[in-house]
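Dig into this one:

. . .
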Amino acid sequence: LPAGGVSLRLCSTRAAAGGINKPVIDRIIRVDHAGEYGANRIYAGQMAVLGRSSVGPIIQQMWNQEKDHLKKFNELMVAYRVRPTVLLPFWNVAGFVLGAGSALLGKKGAMACTVAVEESISDHYNSQIRTLVEEDPEKYKELLQIIKQFRDDEREHHDIGLEHDAEAAPAYSVLKTAIQLGCKAAIFLSERI
């Protein structure tokens, strides 16, 4: 140890420079990046099927917001030196298949998928907001602001889905439950792997 007994090591496994809780921040950024990546792939799949339909512009508008979200999390991955989940290739395919598959059920199927996914994601963002507020709301002010804004965007997408007859999709409650179980599994895995 140098004079004064202070270690020169800038980071530990628990706290990084600036006193952030590195494992918590890594987990949050990794899973949010994966989620926004998956959302982009879902909307890409929906646009591949319904892009030229009457609902195409609505899907494109939501997709554009998801592209902005992904861009921001790409920046945060670099800024916080967080590695992405190794499952990105899987989410690439699974997201597109979910988007295209739900769109093959028609506009209502695509909107049911949107409602299920966006409800899961906004709930997940709320959980992260609680975690960061418990940690230190001032220290994580910027990240909290980003997550709150993205949560609000996801809630807006959820409401758009409801306004466009999501609940009239074939087997809506079964479809919604299955998609949300998949979202929970994806969140669990992407936080850790």
